[in-house]
Amino acid sequence: MNKPRKNQNSVNGSSHPTIVDIARQIGVAPMTVSRVINESGYVSEAMRQRVQAAVTEMNYRPNVLARSLKRQRTQVIGILLPDIANPFSAELVRGIQEVLLARSYTSFIGTTERSTQREQAELRALFDLRADGIIVATRETKKGNDYLLKLTENRLPMAVVGRTLNHPQVDRVTADHWQGAYEAVEHLIALGHRRIGYVGVQPINGGGLRRYQGYLDAMRDHQLKIDERIIVGPAEQAGPGYSTQDDGYAATNRLLKIKQRPTAIVARNDFTAIGAMCAIRDAGLRIPEDMAVVGFDNVPLAAYTAPPLTTVDQPTAEQGRQAATLLLERIEGDRARERREINLACHLVIRASTQPATQRT
Amino acid sequence: MNKPRKNQNSVNGSSHPTIVDIARQIGVAPMTVSRVINESGYVSEAMRQRVQAAVTEMNYRPNVLARSLKRQRTQVIGILLPDIANPFSAELVRGIQEVLLARSYTSFIGTTERSTQREQAELRALFDLRADGIIVATRETKKGNDYLLKLTENRLPMAVVGRTLNHPQVDRVTADHWQGAYEAVEHLIALGHRRIGYVGVQPINGGGLRRYQGYLDAMRDHQLKIDERIIVGPAEQAGPGYSTQDDGYAATNRLLKIKQRPTAIVARNDFTAIGAMCAIRDAGLRIPEDMAVVGFDNVPLAAYTAPPLTTVDQPTAEQGRQAATLLLERIEGDRARERREINLACHLVIRASTQPATQRT
DNA sequence: AGCAATTGTGATAACGTTATCAGAGTCGCT
DNA sequence: AGCGACTCTGATAACGTTATCACAATTGCT
Fold first, then answer.
1. C1' nearest to CA of A61: which nucleotide?
2. Are A245 and A278 in contact (CB under 8 A)?
């Protein structure tokens, strides 16, 4: 009480008082302050209160840099996303953070923006930060995979969402896009459609896209002809097929020029579907009478399109929760445990873009 | 060369070799390695190459925790957003990161999810991390403002985007929503509309919303009656007026029940507008013949709605760039400099939702 | 040749925290 | 009374890095 009245900008001049400042203030060892802050070890109740008071008065906040350095873990999980703009990313993050928050982890988000270079930079940043683990939801690329595997070899715990990464210690969470697309096609078939197109993929390199496989398999299983002329994707030079309204619009315009055009289309995702619907309307056709449309993802907007969009709902937040849970399990438990894979069911949401056809074959 | 063949998981057993490991490997002092890594001070070319080789071979990456701790700055800028789901956030982040990347800063994103509690938690996290500065783009709340001011008092450099914060050291970047809305209303008036509604705000508490003020002022300046019955917002109990398709849909449904309904509406933002359009169609009315609609923000989707949406474009990425530039200027220069404010112009994008009326007064 | 300036390298301490050990005091039990 | 167990507090060292000082070797200049 002889050095009175010091505000939070105390001893060390910086605006961040340290544990040492607190300790000096009340005349104890820094270690004692540390124990109070972390509620670890023995501290008498009287001391605890004295320290607490000083902590609040001086507005002390632990320096996570120093703490993480000493503890050799950061309590940080990196999240790598293709981009930030879409509802899928947002929902996924929500699910992940729900779990992390409860277990007092923090998350850092990095985005790829379609560039493998960006992806590596972001991963490197997370690695340099000594993130305790990462959740990866980017599109697969050769380079990207190589780099991820390298990080895994460096013992960085990892989980992937909605994609693959072939490594025995990388957990994996997905939704069953194959099944969702399969059901969507069966729904169209039940409505009487026979000639069903696919918008958002190039027939050549759609192999990795499970929702596209689901479309193909459903068509085959029902003895329907797969006509590559009504499977349209982004223009060749568009790079790594990244799907937006624009792609859907352009591709569908090409599709509509074909003589025997389909009576229904399945779109790679809802935004592609929205672009497609716009193209269909611009061509003077009605939805669903002249052409039915099915999307994929059930973004919030899908209920408000004109007409409201039939689409496949995938449990996005749940994928996030599961991925986070698996990852934390690995981080805090057996880091070498064999990978787990979780595949969640999708379900079809039927709206007005696929009403039963009135005058159809 | 007597302890041969060590892979990257070297001396200290962890998968992260340190500067000391490198130094030992080639028999020099850690300081020399540090100098090579940071390209600071004098190092002979021969030494530089020797160190570089070891760094690559052992896959060394500097520990940013230790580095930041020592340097007393993290090169991290925190970004606080209301949420991650919307295109505005995405564009803003893109603009910010463009600047940060070029100046070798990293950014961490925190989201509020409409909760002041979450907001404080995220801010605290950024503060604890010793972020060098933060950019805040959340909605204003009393509690939120108080906390932000407290952080500013603790000398955390700050810039706000699309909102206010009254402090002489907080820079501010906005787009002129007032002017954008004003132009939108004048556009409708020029098309012959006299009775123009507003969707997405409650007349009572719209005071803080500049785009709403622009609507009111434009109406007044053109001697048009402001009728509070055709100004509809989210239901009272909806909490902090957060606008989505759902709100727009519900509010517009209420609006459509009014006898003398407006011939045009201005929506608080594009998503509200999309909800509104859906409600209008559901009521069996045509857009724009029976009711014209103007949105705000020009989200990518606005070009693909049915009909394509007339809306006010705001330079979002540019706001991000400007905010980041101002903030870095403050961080690296005079931290006490008087605040700067930048107000960027908006412009109207005319599409089909407001075509010149055919049979109107 | 002589001396200052430049170049190259190393030793030391510190950033803020916490794991670990050590020691003193208290309590409970025989 | 004696002894082990528990409770409380402190001293020390370390996490991985870099700022600073120190010193030797080289260079340039008169």
1. C16
2. yes
pLDDT value of position A243: 59
Does B168 sit behind a cis peptide bond, omega within 30 degrees of 0 on the bond before it?
no
Q: Mind listing the pLDDT tens digit for each residue in A176-187? A: 999 999 999 999
Q: Which residue in A14, A90, A111 is closest to B83 by CB distance?
A: A90
What b/e readout covers A105-129, taking b as 16+ CB neighbours within 10 angstroms?
bbbbbbbbbbebebbbebbebbbbb
pLDDT of A340 strictly over 50: yes
Q: Is the Cβ pair A69, B72 closer than 8 Å?
A: no
Residue A289 backbone dihedrals phi, psi, to 5 degrees:
-55, -50
In which region does residue B341 sit, left (phi positive, over 0), alpha (psi from -120 to 50) or beta (all else)? beta
Nearest CA in chain A to B302: A245
What are the φ/ψ torsions at residue A51 (nearest 5 degrees)?
A: -65, -45
Task: Check residue A359 and give its pLDDT.
Answer: 44
Whole-prediction pTM: 0.91
What confidence category does residue A12 fall into, taking pLDDT thresholds of 50, 70 and 90? low
Measure, in angstroms, how far nucleotide C18 C1' is from residue B200 CA.
Answer: 52
- The reply to whether the CB atom of residue A64 sits less than 7 A from any atom in nucleic acid chain D is no
In the structure, what pLDDT confidence band is assigned to residue A261 with cuts at 50, 70 and 90? Answer: very high
Burial class of residue A5, CB neighbours in 10 A (0-12, 13-18, 19+): exposed
Q: Would the CB atoms of B306 and A281 count as touching at under 8 Å?
A: yes
DSSP-assigned letters across all residues of A129-193: TT-SEEEE-SPP-HHHHHHHHHHHHTT--EEEESS----TTEEEEEE-HHHHHHHHHHHHHHTT-
CB of B339 within 7 Å of some strand C atom: no
pLDDT over 70 percentage in chain A: 91
Tokens 């999810």 belong to which residue? B113
Q: What is the pLDDT at residue A156?
A: 95
B105 contacts in chain A (CB < 8 Å): none
Do A95 and A316 form a contact (C-beta atoms < 8 A)?
yes
Question: Across the 361 residues of chain B, what is the mean pLDDT of every consecutive 10-residue run?
Answer: 36 78 96 96 95 96 97 96 89 96 95 91 95 95 95 95 96 97 97 95 79 96 95 66 78 94 95 95 94 95 94 97 98 95 97 71 37
C1'-nearest nucleotide to the CA of B23: C10
Phi, psi of A2 (to 5 degrees): -90, -30
Q: CA separation (Å) from A99 to A15, A77, A175, A320?
A: 33, 11, 19, 9
CB under 8 Å to B337, separation ≥6 — which residues? B169, B330
Q: Note every long-range contact of B49-55, with CB atoms under 8 Å and residues 24 or more positions apart, other chains counting.
A: B50/B26, B51/B22, B51/B26, B54/B22, B54/B25, B54/B26, B55/B22
What is the per-residue pLDDT for B234? 81
Is the CB atom of residue A30 positioned under 7 angstroms from any atom of strand D? yes
User: For strand C, is any atom closer than 7 Å to the CB of A71?
Assistant: yes
Check A275 against B304: CB less than 8 A apart.
yes
